[in-house]
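=== Structure Prediction Worksheet ===
Name of assembly: unnamed complex
Input type: mixed (protein and possibly other molecules)
Chain count: four
Listed entries:
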Amino acid sequence: MRREDVVEIRKLELFRACADETFDALVTAGFLQRFPPGVVLIQENEPSDFLYIVVEGLVEMFAGHAGRETTIGFVRPIGTFILAAVLKDQVYLQSARTLEKSRVLMIPAANVREAMQHDTAFMSAIVGELSTCYRNLVKELKNQKLRTGTERLANWLLRANEKQGGSGMVELGIGKRVLASRLGMTPENLSRSFAALGPHGVVVNGPRIRIADMETLRRFARPSRLIDDLTS
Amino acid sequence: MRREDVVEIRKLELFRACADETFDALVTAGFLQRFPPGVVLIQENEPSDFLYIVVEGLVEMFAGHAGRETTIGFVRPIGTFILAAVLKDQVYLQSARTLEKSRVLMIPAANVREAMQHDTAFMSAIVGELSTCYRNLVKELKNQKLRTGTERLANWLLRANEKQGGSGMVELGIGKRVLASRLGMTPENLSRSFAALGPHGVVVNGPRIRIADMETLRRFARPSRLIDDLTS
DNA sequence: CGTAGCATTGATGTGGGTCAACGTATGTGG
DNA sequence: CCACATACGTTGACCCACATCAATGCTACG
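=== Predicted Assembly ===
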């Protein structure tokens, strides 16, 4: 494991405030693994053996039921997933797979729980992380229940544009079929939603999207700080 | 505030393990308020001044956007709400209103945050509570994205039946219009969904539902531990 | 009583899923 | 280098899930 990666992980909200010994112990106990794209890292309903930290690449969280499947979210460097399952020592509720070639740090769940009990600053950081994740999930539920698919796409584009500098040129960065699942629709419907956004100032060119008229798109999308803000 | 209420609150997962001084300080700092039905206790986008504990009655969590509104969940005695907002000292993402005559204990947010920093056992309980809430929310998101409205209703009935003793007679306990919002559909569609469950062994009689054929209903509903379990 | 709110039902429209066909890369092996 | 296979995105036809609008009956309550 590269030193620069360790430095980056240390900067995570989750690890920033904890003691050196805590951090070192966790990193030492962890395994750094490389995975090609498309590898399933964890599967729902399995016991939570590790806390996962994405050091490089891209991981998709998803879940299935009765023959259907949906994407819950993505984890990019540097980010963690399934913290809650690890803390409660219960089965995963989500599955995870790599979308790109990825490097992932796996920390044994028992070590995380133990570290939390011995380092108050770390536990405090966990509270912060869980609260943030909880609030993001509330926003996602509101996104799903209060908006149509096309509206979700419009807001996703606005947010992606800001993350990429606000130039009005958006690179999807993920396949459209995965984006469709993320937004809770079928690939066919995503195509039609893109078409429907044409009159609202959106020009599609393969994986490159141009927001030609930001004001019109915003008027249609109706972004809300209580749904779309990333931070909190 | 009655002594027996204090005893019950003390039994909450959130307060069970904390020090006596922590608990007493929080309860002393809190205000016990009575509200008639239909009172809005908090509104989304307002700063989080209090942690709320429902001592008696029934509270609905809901959220609105662009003229639409949806129910996120219910809080029954003894239960807490908006813990995450309080911990992050940020605005509420949900609103809350009483559905019945209720008694609610309001604890100033600053006291909660302070207590957490001074009582490790309390902080540990907060981690447990947040993890549980997070996982319940993941389940709700899966419920929404992976099921149709009628399927959600069928599973809701199965769960309500178990909570009420498993006799096969289910009392709704809330208005059908509120239930519809909870399940993410309109009141009209809830009526039709009830009708659609007739062939699957469900008999409706106003607010009293009879599950005449449990096996048939379960076969239709396809309940899953990864979506419908209350505990975890 | 009269009125207001709620549940139900029907008619109708829209969002979105399903199925099928087709085009366009991107590879792979001959 | 080409033929072929595969995966993906797009488009059209069609159908189901669900919302909307309107009308009706019911119950609860002042």
